[in-house]
Amino acid sequence: MCLGIPGRVLDIHDDSGLRMATVDFGGVRREACLSCTPDAAVGTYVIVHVGFAIAQVDEAEAHRTLGVLRVMADAVEGELGEPLP
Fold first, then answer.
1. pLDDT at residue 1 above 70?
2. Average pLDDT over the chain, rounded to whole?
3. Burial class of residue 5 in the structure, from the number of CB atoms within 10 Å of its CB (0-12 exposed, 13-18 middle, 19+ buried)
4. What is the value of pTM for the model shown?
5. Of 4, 24, 49, 85, which has the fewest beta carbons less than 10 angstroms from its beta carbon?
6. CA distances from 43 to 24, 40, 72, 74, 76 (A)
7. Is 9 a residue whose pLDDT tops 70?
8. Triad 59, 73, 42: Cα angle to 5°
């Protein structure tokens, strides 16, 4: 199973010409490439799949989705490598 997980962009930086971000997934922070979401800005919520932000989503939807994913703890842990807090 593959998941796209919503998270909030904390900062944006350049990494060898790629627009990258630190994304917070309700306490777990990971790097994600923003090349597929060029309008993403600090504070924007994005859906991240295999290290790429693939879409923007509003804050309410992000929180609803994270709530569902917390119920599916094993799937989230498999995708992120650690459980959501």
1. no
2. 89
3. buried
4. 0.80
5. 85
6. 10, 8, 25, 27, 22
7. yes
8. 25
Greater confidence (59 vs 85) lies with 59
Q: Residues, the chain, total?
A: 85
């790429």: which residue's tokens? 52
For residue 31, the model assigns a pLDDT of: 97
Tokens of residue 62, six digits: 């992000």
Nearest Cα neighbor of 74 from 83, 63, 65, 62 is 83
SS (H, E, C) the chain: CCCCEEEEEEEEEEECCEEEEEEEECCEEEEEECCCCCCCCCCCEEEEECCEEEEEECHHHHHHHHHHHHHCHHHHHHHHCCCCC
Residue 46 token pair = 């994005």
